[in-house]
Protein kinase domain-containing protein (Hordeum vulgare subsp. vulgare), 699 residues
Amino acid sequence: MRRAFLAVLLAALATAPKAPKGPNSKPGCQPSCGGVDIPYPFGIGEGCFREGFEITCKNSAPILGINIRVLNLSVTPRPEAKVILPVAYQCYNIKGEVLHKDQGNVNFNTAVDAYRISNTRNELFVLGCNTFTMTNSGRKGRHQFRYYTGCVAYASDSMDLEGVEDGTCAGVGCCHVDIPPDLTDNTMRFANDENGNWLHSNQAFCPCDYAFIVEKGHYTFRTADLRMDGGETSMPQVLDWAIRGRRGDSSPSCTEAATMPDYVCVSNHSKCVNSTNGPGYFCNCTQGYEGNPYLPNGCTNIDECARPEQFPCHGVCHDTEGSYECKCRPGYHSFRDPKEVFCSPTFPRQARIAIGVGLGVFFLVVVLLLGLIMHQRKKLAENFEMNGGNILKRVTGLTIFTEKDLKKITNNNSKCLGNGFFGKVYKGTLPDISETVVAVKSFIKVDEERIEEFTEEVMIQLKMNHPNVLKLMGCCLQLDVPMLVYEFAANGSLRDTLHRNKRQNLSTELRLDIAIGSAKGLSYMHSQDIRHGDVKPDNILLSDKLIPKISDFGLSKLLKLGEKIAQKVVGCEGYMDPVFRNTGLLTRKSDVYSFGVVLLELISRKQMVYGQSGSLVIEFRHIYETEHSGRSMFDEEIVAEENIIILEEIGKLAMQCLKERQDGRPEMAEVAEQLVKLRKNTVDWKEYIERVLPTRRQQ
């Protein structure tokens, strides 16, 4: 579901029209929600929308009607609203009895009859192996509705499906048809088996029927979809909208609306257009203008000269109000409109030859230089596309740096911080007011097979917004290997602090603070349904104030969104959950196991493998089980009377995290909560040691 929704969101961003110049929403009203522009007549809040066009902003997501998620709203040139809706489905048991179903009921219109499901921009898909499904619309005719449309998807057994190729929807397992106009709502009707025509008994290879109306060109049939989770799958749909009357009332045409007091085409240079899908009308800007015709002064002049690909001029272009002029420059002329043909020079032939010879050599040099420049630009453009730039440039909140930007940020890679997993890591400074220090590191080389993997990982990292998760600041896609720009962690990794810098004093309280911050960062990732998969001290970085930052999400990039089984099992052996190592099943409890090893390293300051053959996990577990205490393994630096109880509790918590069975381990949120309680207890225990214990000893 998350992967399907991410694909829908990226497609919406890629096709969303650019916001026009000039006003787009009512003054004083919220202009956008969740990265989606809200143009009037749509609006958020009282007084900001026309009746029937209210949008609510819930959890940074625009919502139409009753919980219909909006992906995009457009005013001109087509009045459309792109939304995402769940599929309708009906599932059966082995006897052919209905287990559960959802007919996909949805009604876009409440008081005002504003919306229609676009018959030109959508199509109806039906998936199943013995199903006839239809939808309907229109006023009552000979039957309950005026229009009915649907199709039959059939396959007698699983052998039929083996011959079907993904991408083919021709009746076997899948069918699709155009839909009629004037659909005001949608209810999918699955044919029953009262007459024995649509039986579903002994059909385990195809247990459900599915039906959905989806934007044309978005969905491609896959045989695996015959077993998808209908309750967790959604599809984008395009709605036509128009200015119409309240439900039950007639809707005016342009001729009728122009005399009404609530006529909405109020901008100068606006015009009225009759709706082609149902009654009513909508507004557009007149030729030479663009913007929002529903607002005063919403239609603004187009600067045609700034758009030569759309408004050609083979001479000198001059913008005018509502149009533009195109004239040949001095010394040239044209017998036709220079908007259509090139201008010719008016010099005599001898002068043209003399100038031509003089300029020939110059232009030859220029062409060679331009060739080198164009080759370089082409290479940068190819790298940008290969590294997923055409997708990522549409993502809100992601800063994409050019090669030139990156050289300036890193001062031509002058300061190398070390080697990361895929290449060198450089220190840099952003050219902002505060001169933010960053770390610039290489990613793996991206090819056609890895574009989706790379863009998904960037999306995952960009989504992470927590003080204990390393923040992705941006990326550069013009190089052979993409570079990622992160916030800078001045004190390196927890591994460096614990094992390579033994002189640094680490108090119990500081170690506990590091554990708490790390646990909170992982708990936040789990709340976003992200599993880290490679938790270890190397991937916990420390800021200048020793605040922990979870980095290198590791196996998150080896999992497709929504899946739990990794395609390959990799990671650091000593920190790896045995269940994940043996089965490939990566869950939140896998991160809990790895974090348990980190806790042991914090209280013992021993590496996961130390000495000649010492295993920290095995030896600590053995001592804990035989002595009911891990005191002999604690770091001597912090073993003191006021710390021992806290250390014992941390060791006990680590043993809970390291249980063999995943269901015996706590959730990461519980681990963070217990560590926070221990941190509070350090203050209470110190007060007890300083105030009460000396008195008892004197007695």
